[in-house]
Specification:
Helix content is 25%, strand content 16%. It is built from 15 helices and 13 strands. Strands 7, 8, 9, 10 and 13 form a five-stranded antiparallel beta sheet that branches. Strands 2-3-1-4 form a four-stranded antiparallel beta sheet. Strands 5-6 form a two-stranded parallel ribbon. α2 packs across α15 and α8 crosses α10. The chain is globular, with a radius of gyration of 21 Å. Bound molecules: delta-meso nitroheme. Delta-meso nitroheme binds next to β7, α12, β10 and α14.
């Protein structure tokens, strides 16, 4: 949805044949298998990777598929991306000097500062993971068969540590994550790829265009004309954060139902919508604060066309604790020096749900791309989601100071009391609804760098 209007090829300023397809446009998937593996024989890995090289999907192909989608259903295709952890990059001989320490030390080392539960990881995520295949298809069987074929092609050089199958939910819940909310509505527009719409600095209405260097190495970023590329092989590549997030769906709905009276918002649907910032349909509460508007939810020219600060300065329509307000506060910093801060924290989200509705173990295989894990994913998680005081300095309309609370979905590490409504109401301490059960920090290299890995 976010890229449904892309620049004509002659105007694209990004090197699309170099950038892997999941990074900016996404592998447009109904099903995906993340195959995490150890490289056991580097020399054979080079040659075996060579045999599947033609299957790797780059962004020029995804752009063509995205354009074909405008004319009809997505053509059948299998997607493949390949990404490496710090240990994997070193095994294949790439110089990692200057890469950010958060990436080099890996996701396990980040658990303390992210306030992840320290004992919740599945054993596989403590094992040696050097790389991952991201395999996508039209349905779980197709994706699983393709993953098996690719693993077979690499069988002399890798040891599979874990396969993580994701699938979009069935029937009317397609496109909705497990709490029931429509996902995948708001992504940043990318300068040099997304066609400007009615406003020159936006793609779809409300979709601000962000410089490509926020997501892909080798391009201008929001904060620097020529951001540092510590190693030349990083050009056209991107850091990938993967997190296996188990969702406690029944607990979420029970909590929301239990807090309706305290919230003063009148119904569980409305309170749930305010806690996320969107109704289950996807309609934003900033534009539809009192009742759902499914028509708006389905209309990409309206469903993301809002700001917060000027129109909702006291959190009456979308509380400051609302997930989408925490994660992308739009104009909440006002016109001062931090005005552009939210654009600098943008990520490209590329996750997919896992587990079926009846399973106890279900949730989101969260994935996001960026050029700094420290400044993007980790900043969003620690400084905004896990901080009860963010957005700071706000009041309700009576002038009373507001402490928003931790992000209701992903906030970790403290009492989870949320402030909603105006005049404000404080909800009871919530249990944890989203539990991190594994994580991997990876790098998604360019076509040239992948070829270099094959060539040795
Ligand atoms: Fe979130 N949810 O259902 O509650 N997310 N998220 N997220 N999220 C979004 O606007 C959800 C997670 C962001 O541009 C929507 O496309 C769940 C992490 C950002 O306005 C919904 C989980 C991080 C946005 C959810 C989860 C983020 C966003 C609205 C975990 C980063 C875009 C759909 C299980 C650290 C904000 C949409 C914008 C949107 C949910 C995780 C960040 C419904 C259930 C870990 C940046």
């Amino acid at each position: 949805m976010p890229f449904n209007s892309l620049l004509p090829n002659s105007e694209v300023t990004l090197d699309l044949p170099e950038i892997q397809g999941d990074v900016l446009i996404g592998l447009k998937k109904n099903a995906e298998v993340f195959v995490f593996f150890e490289i056991t024989d580097v020399a054979r890995f080079r040659s075996e990777l060579g045999t599947i090289f033609q299957d790797i999907t780059f962004s020029d192909r995804m752009k063509a598929i995205e354009e074909a989608k405008q004319a009809g259903p997505i053509p059948f295709f299998l997607g493949l991306n390949v990404a490496f952890t710090a240990s994997g990059l070193q095994k294949v001989g790439l110089n990692v000097a200057g890469l950010e320490p958060e990436f080099m030390n890996g996701a396990a080392a980040a658990r303390g500062r992210l306030a992840d539960g320290m004992n919740n990881w599945l054993p596989a995520y403590h094992d040696t993971i050097d790389a991952a295949l991201l395999v996508t298809g039209v349905d779980p069987t197709t994706a699983a068969n393709q993953a098996d074929a690719l693993i077979n092609a690499l069988r002399h050089s890798i040891r599979v540590v874990r396969q993580e199958p994701g699938l979009v939910r069935a029937g009317a819940q397609k496109g909705h994550e497990h709490f029931g909310f429509e996902d995948g509505i708001s992504q940043p527009g990318v300068l040099g790829l997304t066609a400007p719409g009615a406003k020159p600095d936006q793609g779809l209405p409300g979709q601000d265009l962000v410089k490509a260097g926020e997501f892909v190495f080798g391009y201008e970023s929001e904060t620097a004309a020529a951001p540092a590329v510590p190693q030349p092989w990083m050009r056209n590549g991107s850091y990938l954060v993967f997190r296996r997030l188990r969702q406690h769906v029944d607990a979420f709905h029970a909590y929301v139902a239990s807090q309706v009276a305290a919230s003063g918002l009148g119904s569980a649907d409305r309170l749930g919508a305010h806690l996320i910032g969107r109704w289950a349909s996807g309609a934003p509460t900033a534009l539809a604060p009192a009742a759902d508007d499914p028509g708006m939810a389905q209309d990409p020219t309206r469903n993301n066309d809002f700001e917060f600060g000027g129109e909702d300065p006291n959190g009456a329509k979308c509380p400051f604790v609302g997930h989408i307000r925490k994660m992308y506060p739009r104009d909440d910093f006002g016109p001062g020096p931090l005005h552009e801060e939210p654009e600098h924290r943008r990520i490209i989200r590329a996750g997919i749900p896992f587990g079926r509705d009846a399973d106890a173990d279900k949730g989101l295989l969260f994935a996001c791309y960026q050029t700094s894990i420290a400044d993007k994913f980790e900043f969003l998680q620690t400084t905004w989601a896990n901080s009860p005081n963010f957005m700071f300095g706000k009041t309700d309309s009576t002038g009373a100071a507001t402490t928003p609370g931790l992000d209701i979905t992903i906030g970790q590490g403290g009492p989870r009391t949320s402030t909603v409504n105006d005049p404000q109401r404080v909800l009871a301490d919530a249990p944890v609804f989203v539990e991190n059960t594994g994580a991997v920090y990876l790098f998604s290299p360019s076509r040239t760098t992948l070829q270099q890995i094959v060539n040795g």
